[in-house]
Amino acid sequence: MAAPGKRVLLHVGTPKTGTSYLQDVLFRNRELLREHGINYPADRFDAHFLAALDLMRLTWGGLETQAVGAWDRLAEQVREWPGTSIISHEILSTASPTQIERALTSFGEGVEVHLIVSARDLVRQVPAEWQENVKHRSLVTYEHFLEIIRDPQRDTRIGSWFWGAQELPDILDRWGAGLPADQVHVVTVPPPGAPKDELWGRFSRTFGLEGLDLDLTAERANPSMGVPETTLLRLINKRVTPVVDPPDYRPLVRELLAHQTLSRRTKSARLGLPPTMHEWVQQLSGTWVAEIEQRGYDVVGDLAELIGLSMGTFTDPDRAAAADLLPASLDAIKALLVEASRLRTSEAELAREVGELRHDLAVAQRTPAEKTVQALERRRWGRAALWLYRRGKISRSA
What we know:
The chain is α/β, with parallel strands linked by helices. Helices cover 55% and strands 7% of the residues. The chain has a 6-stranded parallel β-sheet, with helices on both faces.
């Protein structure tokens, strides 16, 4: 049996609800958390992502090869920890019932599992999900994406993933089916204009982190891009997809261009939901809110925030003018040139180091006679002696 008080706080998303920031804070403070009886088992920042890939047997641009056995290693650390353990990754929201059963069983017997689902209104989630698709090499236009998610069949790759990650009642059904209502926690994302620390305050209360002196400086995040930047990235995808392999796409396009460059252009038009879809998403969200209220889950925040408000003027990313793309394009070119320069410098340094190593290896492999000759050649009298020796040798051979 598990030790008294042994708990697992299992955060399964949803995507684009501050999850990257939360995970970064937990990872950076894992030693401090352990001092307070809280285990965030991770030896690298993406450890829980790899564990989720392993649990769900997902392919992810080659990263799945690094994920083999990751869930079992994570679960073992949870079983060995006597207090509270936290697991967090948003792609867990799409797990199947069979995968969920495996996950919950892997924690061992007698563990009190608390399910945590963070949620944001569909008015913001729909465009955010399309942008995430673009950041993962998608060529699908925004208009087509909206058609796909409105298809009631939901049998396409994009449609099934979107609803698997966003349909709150279904996620709560799959993950929380065997849990008491008071062990299921729904954390709502505050609306635009709320205090910047409001979402962290809600996470902090839910995970029992209040009162801990944590370093809240984020090194990793998943920032959003504006309309012209997202349009530009989709056009880049059309050119690079046939020639850039996934392992190279992630650091160069997704990280360097999308996260580190284009997302910093904060003055461009924000991606939003077409006005024609507002009524549909608000009605759907209203049914979700009513269902969650009826189930009696612990809600941190306000379920009314899941209805969503209009985001103002809509700018269609499928019809962005070339002139609007130019500034973002120039920033992208600059970032790539700076990175190319850095890589050239690094390549030259590596070539120098390899040259030195080869020289040292050649010296080490020389015979004693070769080493003696090399030592004599470094001295004036030695060179004279070698000259006399070689002259005499030539004379004798003649």
